[in-house]
Fold this sequence. Notes:
3-stranded parallel sheet, two-stranded parallel sheet, binds tryptophan, 2 domains, Rossmann fold
Amino acid sequence: MSEKKVVVSGIRATGRLHLGNYLGALRNFARLSQDDDYETYFFVADWHTLTTKRDTKDNFLNDMVLDYLAAGVDPKKSALYLQSSVPQTAELFWYLSCLTPKGDLERVPTFKDKVRLQPKNVNAGLLNYPVLMAADILGPRAELVPVGKDQLPHLEMTAELARRFNYLHGKTFPEPRAMDDRPITVPGLDGTGKMGKSENNTINLEDPPDVVMQKLRTAVTDPARVRRNDPGNPEVCNIFKLHTLVSSPEEINTCAEGCRTAAMGCVECKKILAKNINNLLEPFQQRRRELVDKPDVVVEVLRSGNVRAKERISRTVAEVRQKLGIITI
Ligand code: TRP
């Protein structure tokens, strides 16, 4: 029997999770955690959060772990942990940062975006963000990383660091790859691109059906389709993109056809989408309500996940120390 493939991924703890996190990450985490072909490590990236927030003294961590569990991540099979509970990752980060050209970091698209978005807080953590991410991935020696499209440049840099380290010090890390050949971007409701907490364009995982429909009603569609009778182009429509992520093939076809011929109006199309989103959210919300009633569940899950992650990552870091000639007395 072949060895299980190691999978690692995390989500930043910047706020309550939304449908974009669910479709782009959580749903896959749950599936992978339940699949015996994989050994999975999923964490809350609370250190990465500090690049844009001053502290993490809110309750997002607890909520995020509940979201992971409600989405179906199996804490018995998967190590669910806090990034900050494994200080060895910070140590590995340092070794990797000394192998990373500063110019490469300055060219990373997410860094350039942040410089534009928060010009008054261009801290070194923002610049080093991809190196910490590389340490997150190489620490458990992951081979596969489920991430959204925007994270691919970081993953590319991680693979490059793995190659560089292996070249200099002998084979130590597998070269990690994206889990999915075609990672998705979940569009926001405002038509500007990705669904994101800071963009205020999200459907939240706790939204009840009437809120989902209310948000969809005002969501941007094909801007050229002004009147009900104008034919539209599903290819440029946000709502249609969301359909492709949650609706059945028949519904996707009916909506695309109805849009192109103007046989179906945007409101009708949005109602079908709302139904499918609610069908996804309903069982999630139900499971989450059950979990909230068990007060110790998060602490127990993290305690065992932290131990498992720390054990594996410490082994890697001990080997790295030895290869670098760091003295451990
Ligand atoms: N940068 C990722 C994001 O914003 C979160 C993250 C941090 C991550 N470390 C990681 C994802 C390691 C995968 C692997 O989505």
